[in-house]
Write a structure and sequence with these properties.
heterotrimer; A alpha+beta; B mainly alpha; C mainly alpha; A: alpha+beta; Alpha-Beta Plaits; three-stranded antiparallel β-sheet; two-stranded antiparallel sheet; C: Four Helix Bundle (Hemerythrin (Met), subunit A); 74% helix; ubiquinone (chain A); 4Fe4S_Fe_S_CS (chain A); iron (chain A); repeat (chain A)
Chain lengths: 165, 347, 165
């Protein structure tokens, strides 16, 4: 049949000549190739001490942001929880009391904000859904742990550190 | 024999035993490190500086793991298998000449446990006995994979013993003795009477056959079919755990060490090194340098074993048998004939 | 002499175990031990070459082959074939004849003088080689021919007949 793509190649399989059958030259060339690799610089990055740079659009652990005055941006609107395809986010909203203006930017804030890191798929939809630019997946890799309950991260782990301490 | 001589022999045996165990231990580390370098990696580097405590960590792990004896296995033979494997691996070192002799006071110490006049055959016998450890262990596990591994080991060892023996015969035709010390003495220095003294330059083909057979006898890649993971899970040691598995793995490394020592002694001059008597050193220093030279050769061969392991893929079983019976044996016989003809011409 | 009796006792002990062991594989392993005691006997006789050859050929090769075939035959189910009465009677007759012969032999036995070799180094490989290749060259070569013909026969049996296959 006519080949349509003209990419067909006929492979000839010639019988091996004596040196190819003797197998030794092939072994020697193989040994020289591996020896070349022996002196090559290792490509390993020894992880905990050295870290590979993340790409710009890497999505790691979430952080809840503060504004320029150090107030929490989150207003507990729940859009992030709604947009989350893995249903990893829960929160309980609370009214801002008098005297807490320096803590929370809006009148409503998240008293409890929890992300289950075992459910989270790091898709970044919460980041996109947030109207207040309060959540970003700009952290590191979520570390391993022993118990399932330890993977539910509360505000203590998620909220950014205060500006000036 | 005086008491002092007995004590000296005893100490020598203990030292050689300790050295072969330490070399085997660090071969496991070297294997991982060398493999890493060949694959552009770093290898174990956590236990101690550059990971040099890794063998201790591995050993500790092996000892602490759970000991499992399968219900349907025959318990005595199951334990006898690895014990026999490591026993036969260790006793091979008895006839290898590690150096000339040291003179301390009035005592002249031969750096060899015993110089029996059938040394080469002794090595050969010990090697041929080594297969029992594998076979007994594989059979006693009562597992199809182990049994297949054991059977492969048996047929492979028997097949390659023949060509190994034939390649040694050609060498013995040149040396005229079976004693390893005399063979080492004959390769004194490096150059005499217009030709190299080392046997590898007199028996290149024989050496090639011998080294291929040594790979097969120690079950190293490309001939590691008895423990071929892709086909037989773990081969003969599928059912083993804990230090019994450790013994099997250890026996392999000791075998590697012993066969490297044998190759160095038979073909690469043993403890001899070039210009050994033109340096103007005392006898004892020459001996010590000779021991170092022998160990350098041994370490090179161990490295070569690893180098080949990370270069050449495993043979198929029928290819292994073809190589052994249809190529190596005729080649070894041709080598004998050739050696005989050349020997009579140049006599 | 004491070593001799001890080793001789071990040889007989293990050879009895060879024929009384139920499991064929165990029986082969006892046979290995029996041959090992023979090796020790040869060493005691200062016949190093014979000892090592016994070691290599019998222990290292032939018995490995025995073990190999037994493992392939899978005899560990204690499936002893049924023995008819004729076989049993024949066995009793055979055993009786052996007993008569042995009895007749033992009656003739006196305590022999211990054999003293004229040359204690006879068993060493050099002397053995000289004797074999000078005095006994013809029988030696004839036995090698015998082995060669056996080998050729084995190859002939193993090759397939091109007509029938």
């Amino acid at each position: 049949m006519e080949s349509l793509s003209n990419k067909k190649k006929l492979i000839e399989s010639k019988p091996l000549n004596f040196w190819e059958r003797a197998y030794l030259p092939a072994i020697l060339s193989g040994l020289s190739i591996t020896m070349k690799h022996f002196f090559r610089k290792p490509v390993t990055i020894s992880y905990p001490e050295e870290k590979r740079e993340f790409s710009e659009n890497f999505r790691g652990m979430h952080s809840l942001k503060r504004d320029e005055n150090g107030k929490e941006r989150c207003t507990a609107c729940g859009l992030c929880a709604l947009s989350c395809p893995a249903e990893a986010i829960t929160m309980i909203a609370a009214e801002r009391q008098k005297g807490e203006e320096h803590l929370y930017r809006e009148e409503k804030y998240a008293a409890v904000y929890e992300i289950n890191m075992l459910r989270c798929i790091f898709c970044g939809l919460c980041e996109e859904a947030c109207p207040k630019e309060a959540i970003y997946l700009d952290g590191d890799i979520v570390p391993a742990d022993y118990l399932r309950k330890d993977f539910i991260y509360g505000k203590d782990k998620l909220v950014e550190a205060p500006l000036n301490q | 024999m005086e008491l002092a001589d007995i004590i000296i022999k005893f100490v020598l045996i203990v030292i050689i035993f300790a050295i072969s165990l330490v070399v085997a231990m660090y071969s496991t580390y070297a294997e991982r490190k060398v493999a890493a370098f060949f694959q552009d990696r770093i290898g174990p580097n956590r236990a101690g500086p550059w990971g040099i405590l890794q063998p201790l960590a591995d050993g500790g792990k092996m000892f602490l793991k759970e000991e499992i004896i399968p219900t349907n296995a025959s318990a005595f033979l199951f334990i006898a298998g690895p014990s026999l494997a490591i026993l036969t691996a260790c006793i091979g070192s008895a006839v290898i000449p590690w150096g000339q002799h040291l003179t301390i006071g009035s005592h002249v110490i031969d750096l060899q446990v015993t110089d029996i006049n059938v040394g080469v055959l002794y090595i050969f016998g010990v090697v041929s006995l080594g297969v029992y450890g594998v076979m007994i262990g594989g059979w006693a596990s009562n597992n199809k994979y182990s049994l297949l591994g054991a059977i492969r080991a048996a047929s492979q060892n028997i097949s390659y013993e023949i060509s190994m023996g034939l390649s040694i015969i050609a060498l013995l035709m040149l040396t005229g003795t079976l004693s390893l010390r005399e063979i080492a003495e004959q390769q004194h220095g490096f150059w005499s009477h217009g030709w190299f003294t080392w046997n590898v330059f007199r028996q290149p083909l024989g050496f090639l056959i011998f080294i291929v057979c040594a790979f097969a006898e120690t079950n190293r890649t490309p001939f590691d079919l008895p423990e071929c993971e892709t086909e037989l899970v773990g081969g003969y040691h599928t059912e083993y755990s804990s230090m019994k598995l450790g013994f099997y793995l250890f026996a392999e490394y000791i075998n590697m060490f012993i066969s490297s020592a044998v190759m160095a002694t038979l073909y690469f001059g043993g403890y001899n090194f070039p210009f050994m008597h033109h340096l103007g050193l005392t006898e004892n220093w020459v001996t010590i340098l000779g021991v170092i030279a022998l160990f350098a050769k041994i370490i090179f061969f161990i490295f070569f074993f690893m180098w080949v392991r990370w270069t050449i893929p495993r043979f198929r079983y029928d290819q292994l048998m073809d190589l052994g019976w249809k190529i190596l044996i005729p080649l070894a016989i041709a080598n004998i004939v050739l050696t005989g003809v050349i020997g009579t011409i140049f006599k | 002499m004491n070593t001799f009796y001890f080793i001789a006792f071990l040889s007989i002990f293990f050879s009895i175990l060879v024929i009384s062991a139920k499991n064929p594989v165990h029986s082969i392993l006892y046979l290995v031990l029996t041959f090992f005691t023979f090796t020790i006997q040869y060493i005691l006789l200062n016949a190093q070459f014979l000892a090592i050859v016994n070691f290599i050929v019998y222990m290292g090769a032939i018995l490995v082959l025995f073990l190999y075939t037994l493992m392939l035959m899978n005899l560990n189910k204690d499936s002893e074939p049924f023995k008819s009465n004729i076989v049993k009677i024949a066995a009793v007759l055979g055993g009786g004849c052996l007993f008569v012969v042995l009895f007749a032999c033992f009656r003739q036995v006196g305590i022999a003088e211990p054999v003293v070799l004229k040359d204690p180094g006879l068993g060493l490989v050099k002397n053995l080689g000289k004797v074999l290749f000078n005095e006994f060259l013809l029988p030696f070569e004839i036995s090698s021919l015998l082995l060669l013909s056996a080998m050729v026969g084995a190859v002939l049996l193993a090759t397939k007949d091109p007509k029938t296959v």
